Each structure stands twice: as C-alpha cells, then as structure tokens.
Amino acid sequence: MQRQKYPPELKQQIIKEAIEVGNGSLVARKHDLSQAIVNR
After folding, report:
1. In the structure, what pLDDT confidence band is assigned to residue 39 with cuts at 50, 70 and 90?
2. What is the pLDDT of residue 40?
3. 21/36 Cα distance (integer angstroms)
C-alpha cells in the first residue's frame, strides 16, 4: 500500500478547520482521514 501525499493547501485547510471547530475527530471524519493524522 502506497503512502498518500496531501497537497499543502489541503493540509492548511484541515488545520484551520480543526482549530476553528476545536475537535480533530470531526474534521478527520469529514475528510475521511485518521484522527492521528489530523492531530499530528
């Protein structure tokens, strides 16, 4: 299984959402990611 690469723009958007919402789990579910990825 290959490692997926995310564009910097998407990373910034996810970080911004996580800060605004205050809940990494919700943002992770919305973008179909692991919570650990969002928290990192």
Report:
1. confident
2. 81
3. 16
The rounded distance, in Å, linking the Cα atoms of 28 and 10 is: 12
HSE of 40 in the Cβ direction (CA atoms, 13 Å)? 6
N-to-C CA span, the chain: 21
Reported confidence tier of residue 12, pLDDT bands at 50, 70, 90: very high
Q: What is the DSSP string of 1-40?
A: -PPP---HHHHHHHHHHHHHHS-HHHHHHHTT--HHHHH-
**So what's the pLDDT on residue 16?**
94
